[in-house]
Amino acid sequence: MGDPIQLKDEGNKHFQANEYDKAAECYTMAIKVCKDKKVLAILYRNRAACYLKKEHYAQAASDASRAIDIDASDIKALYRRCQALEKLGKLDQAFKDVQRCATIEPKNKTFLETLRRLGAEIQGKLKVQFSTDSRVQTMFDILLGDDADKDKKEKAANNLIVLAREDGGAERIFQNNGVNLLLQLIDTGKPEMILAAIRAMSGICTGHKARATAIVHMVGIEKLCSILGVDHEEIALATCNLFQCIYDSLSGKDKRDHGKEEALVLDTTKDLKAILLALLDMVINKNVSGHGRDQALNLLTKNVPRTNKKDPDHSKTLFTIDHGLKKILKVVGQVPDLPDQLPMTDNTQLIASVLLNKLYDDLRCDPERDNYREICQEYIKGKFDPKDMDKNLHAIQTVSGLLQGPFDLGNKILGMQGVMEMMVALCGSEREVDQMVAVEALIHASTKMSRATFIITNGVSLLKDIYKKTKNEKIKIRALVGLCKLGSAGGDDYSMRQFAEGSTEKLAKQCRKWLCNPNIDVRTRKWAVEGLAYLTNDADVKDDFVEDEPALKAMFELSKSTDKTILYAVACTLVNCTNSYEKKEIIPELVQLAKFSKQHVPEQHPKDKKDFIEKRVKRLLKAGVISALTCMVKADNAILTDQTKEMLARVFLALTEDPKDHGIIVAQGGGKALIPLALEGTEAGKIKASHALAKIAAIANPEIAFPGERIYEVVRPLVSLLNTERDGLQNFEALRGLTNLAALNEKLRKKIIKEKAMPEIENYMFEEHDQIRQAATECMCNMIVCKEVQERYLEEGNDKLKLLVLLCGEDDDKVQIAAAGALAMLTAAQQKICTKVTLVTAQWLEILQRLCLHDRPEVQHRGIVIVYNMINADKELAKKLIESELLEILTVIGKQEDSPMKQPAIDAARNCLVIAMNLGLIKPYSYLCNGTGF
Predict the structure, then answer these.
(1) What domain range includes position 29?
(2) Is there a smaller number of Cβ atoms within 10 Å at the N or the C end of the chain?
(3) Could you tell me the keywords of this UniProt record (predicted)?
(4) Within a domain: residue 714?
């Protein structure tokens, strides 16, 4: 192990070299073998110093305490413990330690200053605490009293919520019997009081395990679930947020620092499991409202499946499948038109289908998937009953829900004996509800044509038959959607039309007619959009649709309705109308080869060419597509799936193609709507949204396009485009966007650095492509104002400064302006750079001369400013510059007559000559220049 004294000395050397990990390691080894108590005290206090440097304050306080236990008068150990305790927020204990230090050394200025500062902080904290306690009590008195008017109570409720969101306020509310008082507010039964209490509880338990655990036990999961289940959308949403705060705090997801003393709770597994079981029970509870059911399903969707598939633990998913899969299937299988069904909103069943899909996707192996499938099959078989048609209806509705969720699983269940036969039987039923459920199931079953052979063979005739015979508009429109879906199987391939010429246009016309009919209910009109989502694969249909402004506006209004199940269909329709779907690159040689071998070659419709697409985009913008998109982005995450987000991102990118349209996009909130799409969703969707953001940020004023704090959220998406895997246009527009942001303020520049954009920007300054190189250099020019960036140029062993100097000698004027501007600011801010410039390349003097002789005044001015900074920085360097041809260049420029265009360069040249004269490098001489002579 070694000698403790040698290990201590070695640790001291590492500490002086700022190698704190190695130093702590040496002290630890020495502690293990040390027998001398005095040396042991030194070792503990030295290791405490290491922990202080590494910001491990709890360990620093512990080691300092061990040193003090050995030697109570160890002043260094006392002060180190004081520093650690202060950082941990234990001001009273820290004050006592520094008080002892000041008693031992009464003239030590550091101790006296710390004593004064801590004393003031403690007094301030006590004052705030007393003030907060008083405010909390006053607010509860107002809320629970009978005297105050409505406005006063509303103000007190809002103040309580604000106070609960601050850690100090949350702690005071909690300590002053606040949870019981909040329960009294809930028991009043008044919605505004319940909302205030729930929101205050959310603030109290956010990021704090101990308080979250206390609320779970004091209020009770059953009580919280009963509040979540009330028929009040706002209360259900607020309670859902409270559950999420509790879950994040107990599971450790919320890592925010709320207070210096970290709450330690030994085990939260039992509480987390109880919450999951309670939510699963809520899903099938008839006393739970539709809004409450939606929020229970949302909480399960957000917290059960893994967000990162690399995480090996998916035990929550397996637990939910074992204890709740049949319960979720029951929700999916509800038929709203039948009596005695669970209360639901328009969105409930789709949310449940999304949850089923996420659970299935989270499974890791075939045995787990087989178990999932067997549970589903057993559930559906159990519902088939020849004597009870309603149970059969529930079974087919469940299949329909699975087809909207884990489609592959739903498709397998379609092959179960009796399923397809039952669907056909229901289609021929006289009951309208039977036909409706069967037709919807047929529609969902034909999603993937390659895997739905039965539907292809029998679907068209079956649906046509229903469409002709039924007089019910609801069934008619659903049958029409099925025909639309089957008729669009060829996608946008002009050569693969399923129906006769003109048939798709007729179907689309009927869909538009239903869509624009305000007398038809929203749920039925939604199916008209579903039909258009498939028919708009046809270029004739999409062109006719965008010409029909009333139909467009009707679709946009539907997208803003409470029924959010329409979002996917609207997104699909818009993707088709803008041709923003993924297109395979057509290689001419392969086309010829395919023709030669008599293989099918996709054909492009004449109306799918660029000029037609541009016209459609303009029409969509005119009809108000941006306001519809911004509203859609705000939808709940369970409804707005990653696939829907990707489609919305694709549409946004297509709409931002023409810079002239950016004004209307920004004015209608498109800029801020793009931010969540760029941060969440599929990888392809995030890239598309980030590219659209870059297009806007590159041209528009970022402060107007992304108002308030949103501007800082734009940085990360733009930085994500600075990647070799992205194409050149994405790189270029991201750099231009970052250039605009970097020009605004220091906080944004630091955000760009924090997102690790600097190495990427520097790499693109080496890029062969002129425009990308120019954009990167301009971005660096704006970033160079930041001290952290300047320090990168001062580091030894890199070519950053050399590249900047060489870029000043480029033939491209715009690159020269940006590079020279950056170098001018750099040499002004850091004098060391001035001498470093002369060492990086032998061409430095020639490049400076070229800048000073440039025919563009702005380049010339920047060059002379660089020379001025170098002359001003070092006398020897100034002498070298004046002895070169630069003296003649500066003299010629300085002698020029004043001119508004060239004045900055002329003034800079004269300033250079004045400094040279003051340094004694040139002798004074007179010349006439507006009455001024040297």
Answers:
(1) 4-130
(2) N
(3) Chaperone, Cytoplasm, Developmental protein, Differentiation, Myogenesis, Repeat, TPR repeat
(4) yes
